[in-house]
Specification:
The chain has 163 residues and is an alpha+beta fold. The protein has a single domain (24-161), classed as TT1751-like domain (TATA-Binding Protein, 2-Layer Sandwich). Helices cover 48% and strands 20% of the residues. It contains six helices and six strands. The chain has helices spanning 8-28, 46-59, 70-76, 92-101, 130-136, 143-161, and strands at 31-32, 38-41, 63-69, 84-90, 111-117, 123-127. A six-stranded antiparallel beta sheet has the order 1-2-6-5-4-3. α1 crosses α6 and α2 (46-59) packs antiparallel against α6. The protein is globular. Residues 1-27 have low confidence and may be disordered.
Length: 163
């Protein structure tokens, strides 16, 4: 069993991220749909939200592995889709222990953040919480790591969607 030690600085960072996520939830209309996907309304334009999310991901130790513009792909197929971009980002130091514990976690990692524009022109960020992903795979014994990842995800989404 791998033991993960969390420093005082990391504990403060996690706590700050969870406070930021709670603040975003109150102030910006965080919702979760029936499947558990969380959506946070952005105070910024679509393009700004995408750029801010990418910057926040990198600033929080993630590598952006891919950026998929679904609207552009739809246009190539002769279809119309409001702005919709999937950003795939992760950190092998965090994801690998989860995949070692249950290799099927690799179907869910790296993390995915969907930036999309609703009918009213407002931008949103949607993501699947890491603890929900782990629960789907019946992954246990990694609560500290999952809590740390939850804090980082919250901070990234908060930075991307704040005014």
């Amino acid at each position: 069993m791998t033991r993960i030690l969390v420093s005082v600085r990391e504990t403060f960072t996690i706590a700050s991220a969870l406070v930021a996520l709670a603040t975003a939830a109150r102030g910006q209309g965080m919702t979760a749909n029936a499947s558990g996907v969380v959506t946070v309304a952005s105070a910024s334009s679509f393009d700004s939200t995408v750029a801010r999310l990418e910057r926040a991901a990198v600033a929080n130790g993630l590598t952006v592995a891919a950026k998929i513009d679904h609207a552009a792909a739809a246009r190539k197929a002769g279809l119309t889709l409001r702005p919709t971009t999937l950003i795939i980002a992760g950190n092998p130091a965090a994801g690998t222990p989860l995949m070692v514990a249950d290799q099927t976690m690799a179907v869910e990692l790296p993390l995915r953040f969907l930036v999309w524009q609703s009918d009213d022109g407002k931008s949103h960020v949607s993501y699947d919480p890491i603890k929900s992903i782990a629960a789907r795979h019946k992954l246990t014994g990694h609560e500290q790591l999952l809590t740390k990842m939850t804090g980082a995800i919250g901070l990234i989404v908060s930075e991307a969607t704040k005014p």
